[in-house]
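Quick start: load a record and inspect it. Here is Fpg/Nei family DNA glycosylase:
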Amino acid sequence: MPELPEVESLAEFLREHAVGRAIAGVDVVAFQALKTVDPPVTALGGLIVTGAGRYGKFLDLDCDGLHLIFHLARGGWLRWRDDLSGARPVRPGKGPLAVRVRLTPDDDGRAPGFELTEAGTQKRLAVYVTEDPASVPGIAALGPDPLAPDFTADTLKGIVGGSRAQIKGLLRDQKVIAGIGNAYSDEVLHVARMSPFKIASSLTDAQVADLYEAIVTTLRDAVARSRGLAAKDLKTEKKSGLRVHGRTGQKCEVCGDTIREVSFADSSLQYCPTCQTGGKPLADRRLSRLLK
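Running the structure step on this input writes:
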């Protein structure tokens, strides 16, 4: 799933490649992805792309005040095309293509644009056309952005102080902090040397400060690594920059211990026992329940 660093990089990519161009048309292939009907998607035709931004994991393409907003969900991605003039007409089917956004042709006749694709059987990619981004339910419910100037250690202290949730789940909750998902929550907790099962309200002031620093530096470093890359290269960059997530069985780059994995909610998490849990492996609670 694209998380804050990848979505921020995609927004930067669109600012560089799409802003200033006019929308030639938006073709919706996966009709279940379109969550709004008024204004209609056809209203985007002829409008100039004036900006590209991000709300948590939501991408926002501002077209003369009308916003094309999309959430890529778990299996979605943005695929930039330098020339769509020869692309086949879109037809609803079983392929990954969900939406195609066509921009007006260049002087050389090439018509650039991008496609939103979604892999897998769980179709959760969501597209909205709205005059007000805050009208999108997922955006309206977002917690503070961890890269915003007003997100401070005191902000984080207020968030964790009253929560009995495990810190892993709290970091992933978009209503609490916007933009962090399964991968970067693993990375943040590894940098903070903190157990993913630690109860949020039990954190000391020093641990809150360490966690805050880990959140900000991990996300900023990931954004910096992705800056300037083509959209097609962002997935590879994300994987190469991860130290624990997705690296079960490999050696921890910090201490040399073996990275382990346990089930968590609807997915799994990776961690280093030496760095995060005092050398003790975490119990896989979902597996334990199955064995009873």
